[in-house]
Amino acid sequence: GFMLWLFHWLVTRHLQRIAEFAARLNPGNLHEQLTLDRPLHAHDQLDEFDLVLDGLTRMQSNLASAVQTLEQDIVKLERAEAEIHQLNSALEQRVVERTAQLEAVNHELEAFSYSVSHDLRTPLRSIDGFSQALIEDYGERLDPVGHDYLNRVRRAAQRMGLLIDDLLRLARITRADMKQVHVDLSTMALEVIEDLHKHKGYSEAPFRVQASLAAYGDPALLRIVMVNLLDNALKYSSKIAQPQIEVGSVVQDGRTVYFVRDNGAGFDMAYVGKLFGAFQRLHRAEEFPGTGVGLATVKRIVHRHGGEIWAEGQPNAGAMFSFTLSN
Questions:
Q1: What distance in Å separates the CA atoms of residue 113 and residue 3, rounded to the nearest whole number?
Q2: Are strands 309-313 and 319-323 parallel, antiparallel or unpaired?
Q3: What is the mean pLDDT of each run of 10 residues along the chain (327 residues)?
Q4: Rg of the chain on CA atoms, in Å
Q5: Residue 225: count of CB within 10 angstroms of its CB
């Protein structure tokens, strides 16, 4: 019994105190120090309990440092989350403001389109109509120079009317809703060529349209693309002896590239940057009529489909217009 009591006094009670202290440890009391009710050593050599206490103290110190670092990281994370929340709120506010600005601009564009459509057409019709009336009613009193002046006035008024139509069409392209479906470009190209021959009086030109030419996009907008490109091809090849028109596609870098090619007047590549700008023309209106808005319209439609468009040509050796679509 005495040996058991002695072992309890010297060992067991200290182990129980260490176990109880370790069980109570938590992030809030890591700085507490454990002391054992033991007599002082008469020598400097550490015994097993001293080693345990030293290890426990170092463990507490490491845990306290880890907890402090974790708390600092939590504070940084909370600050970062607060900043992100603030940035998101500011971004949402900017989106709301920009959306309101965009809606205001769209309303202004609609008002402008209405004004152009109604307020400018009326005086142009009056100019053209009264000029025609002068020719019909007072033509006998006018000399050839007077007739020429009035005809020039009429042509200018009619050209202005065409410019207004193309400008309004260009503005509508940007705001038009898109409905993307699978489109048969081969059939569409054949229909467009037939319509152009019928309504614009182009001479019958040999043309080749690739079979099963498919695309994915808005049918109405893609038809405008084909109308403009094929109209240009027929127009600029109408003055050569053996015109040829080709519509097809190739695969480049894993994507489908559609093209419309002709062997007509062509253009100088030094001016290729002007082709797709509104009201930019590389040929005089006396040679080939037009408003210079068609290719700008084509570019907007292609960009709305997520694609690109470019052109290659040589003077008097034809031109090829190529474009891609997103899908």
A1: 109
A2: antiparallel
A3: 77 79 77 73 67 80 84 90 90 88 76 71 84 87 87 84 73 73 91 82 78 89 89 83 88 90 84 71 56 79 90 87 85
A4: 42
A5: 29
